[in-house]
Amino acid sequence: MKDRIFAKSSLPPISPKHCQEPLQNTEFFHKNNVSFSFSAKSYMRIELNHSATVKKLNINDVKAVSKMLAVGILIVIIAISAIGAGYYYMISRPTTSPSPTPEVTPTPATSATPLASLTPAPSSKVKDTLIIGTTDSVETCLDPANAYDFFGWEIIQSLGDSLVDYNPGSDQIVPALAASWTVSSDNLVWTFNLRQGVHFDNGSEFTANAVKYSFDRNIQINDPDGPYVGIGYGDIIKSVTVVSPYVVQFTLNYPFAAFLSLMACQASDIVDPAHAPMSNITWSINDVVQYHAGDPRASNPMGLGPYTLQNWIRTAGKDSELDLKANPNYWNASGGYPKTQNIIIKMFADQSSLALAIQSGDVDIAFRQLSSTDITSMQNKPNLKVWTGTGAFIQYLCFQEKYAPFNDSVARQAVASAINRTALVQTVFQGQAQELYCMIPIGMAGHTDSFKTWGAPDYTLTKQLLATLGYNENHKFTFDLWYESSGHYPSSAQQALVLKDSLEASGVISVNLQSLDWAGYKNARSSETMQAYIMGWYPDYIDADDYIYPFVSSSGDSWLHINYASATMDALVQNARGNTTQSVRNDLYSQINDLIAADCPIIPLYQSSAYAVTNPNVQGVYLDVTQQWRNWLVYENTG
Amino acid sequence: MSDCMTLRTYVIARILLTIPMIFILLTSVFLVMRVLPGDPVQMHFEKMASPAVINQMRIQLGLDKPLYAQYFDYIVGLFRGDLGKSMQDYSSVGQQIFSAFPATLELAICSMLIAVLIGVFLGVEASKSYNRPKDHIIRIFGIVTYAIPVFFLGMILQMVFGVWLHWLPTGGRIAPGMAPTGLSLGGIHFSTGLYTVDSLLQGNLTEFGLSLKYLLLPSLTLGLVLCGIFIRLTRTNMFETMRLDFVTAAKARGLKDSTVTYRYILRNAFLPVLTMTGLQFALLLGGAVLTETTFSWPGLGRYLVDRINFRDYTAIQGAVVVFGIFVSIVSLIVDLLYAYLDPRIRL
Q: What homologous superfamily is domain A391-609 in, according to CATH?
């Protein structure tokens, strides 16, 4: 209905003598109310004339419209081309000079004393505040009893400390809060001599009581979400005893060769009893120190680290900013640590935002996660420095062995022989990862390239193996390959596509790709409905045990749902877990690796490299197999 | 007198109708989430978890109870104003939603302002130059901005203004350490959560300027994408209104062109634009997830997507309830404004 409000205004009236023509169009008259009847007559005449004029114009305008439309489209195309050309020439055009090689993190000389080999910054001035950009966020809280995520551990590391630590740039264990330690001959009792004169940030002294308090508390809280359950601290540690104010003793349930590595992980950081109190007569999950908006001290039970938490802004469950300030009571402050007084950590929603932020100078450092293409493009930029180091994240292919076809090891071996890891690493990650032929990562004790026995790839072997099962070019071996589609792992869809290509290049395999988002993927894994599926692993502690026990031992791999069990494997794994002689362990892991390669319950695919991008004056970045980001070592020279 | 009573009845009826609408929405979401593959209990365990531990988590999250018990527990909690605890980090869903809401509101208001101002102005200009070059160019502009993916436009603007020109920041809501805290008077603290407003309340013009600087790119991105709708809507309605007799009468009476355009034509043509403004604003209050992700804007859109990925049932239900209420309120306000502007509309 085209009725409209008649605009109220003091219009001059029209004399009836102007209404000369009788109303011809009855229909038009009925569309208007009576009060307009006089006006309608004269206006109708004008309206008709106007319509005729409009009609005449439309015919002539058809060509004009087409011409204008074409001009307009051309303008848009030119504009887009100009933007694209501008981007190419100003940002991504390669320079004529040789591409600078990515900065390799220096490996400091090893030493029994932590940080003694890390010479303090030269006397030139150091920037007071550094801004670090990341796409990570603390998942739950900063309490070691509950925090079981990468970023939560990174922040805990800045705010707290553990008995031992890793020497930056390596996986060598060095003293931290413990000055020295001994282990009994049966490998069941570990005695730590604590560093004296160490204080929490509130000034109270650090003693053996704090160590016992921390571990007793965390084990008894027994948070199902937390690392103490996930890693099995309660199964490993029988008791913690205070021998004297500066001597603490751990008695284990069984010899555990990776115990020092366990003590170096952030779940083993010592809490300040004053900020992690017991709310009842026994410890419970309610005692976990949660995030408190506007109160960073109440949100953080730590206190022995190089930094204190000044500000923690979390919006709708996701962090937007964390502010760290140097802890004046830090035990190693006399060594010049932390190098930078203030660290601001700013969160970004995705890789692209982070990449833009480091390029625009909104942040000084970008660490986790940047895409391969962004890293490649930033390597050529003179205003940015790309740091790289060995990563500890691996991805691998799992098989559901409960039913056909992968209940047969020959089928699994055939797939192993048809995987092209070179294509995977070069195509998907642009060379920013390493081909992995062993579940134990490169650079870690116990690594051997056992899966090279299947070729890289070897399609002749693939055909031979599948021929024994009755498959050939006319009757292909077909299976579903699953990957997660919500970005939980990097470039999952591309990885799956490359794997599919490499497997089908054998000529005797046909792959159906299937995907689910992470929640659905985990559900499908638990329901054991996926025939073959790609998974990933970040270590809890830096030891070969953490890459073997959770995958191929029947007591540790239930979470993976591959239904693999081997008595021989179990015996080897338990032996390796309990033997503290490294040479013996290496030999045992070599046997384990060979057995994994023979049985192929899982197939390692690649090992990530760690990358960070900084502005050119930043120093002190150490990227190593521990995956730790050490805020207290980074600095930027201004002088 | 009878018109006022009708309007009052209408308002009361609309408010009362919101309640069953929310319940239908909530029930649908409750059931759909539980049918989707994925289990919030499993999401807690990245690595190893024994069946006993998984069962313990299930009890902790209240998922061991029968479905009807979970539903009624939630409804009872709603009546008490409790949106429940997040299944991901156990914090209050209500606090999480309302911590994200100011950011979303700020972005929605600024984006709509830009969209309406640019869209209506260009729509009016296009209608005045109907079928002439100016009209075609404006129409093409509207089509292009509407068709362009919002994250692509956002990235282009970030590249140009952030990386190349260094004029504006590429993401975030405020510079590190500069978040305005609002007004503190005699021990009483008042904060809206809107950084522009809070900085003015504090009297800190530097922070006000910074908050505008960070707000400009995301709201410009979203505003440009949305203005295409308003350009077309305004243009079409303006052109239809222009052809009516009262406009011809106004012109015949010698009124200025701008007066006829803006006071007579636009006012009558604006009603559908107002409806669309209300609808779009209500949608934006649910969060513009692509824009928020591109600019790392901590709003409700990203929150909801994160929670859906985690299968955080409580958070999703809470967000849907709050969003449903927002939409109802906004559409009621739009209807009331409609009735106010158009005396012919009586209910």
A: Dipeptide-binding Protein; Domain 3 (3.10.105.10)
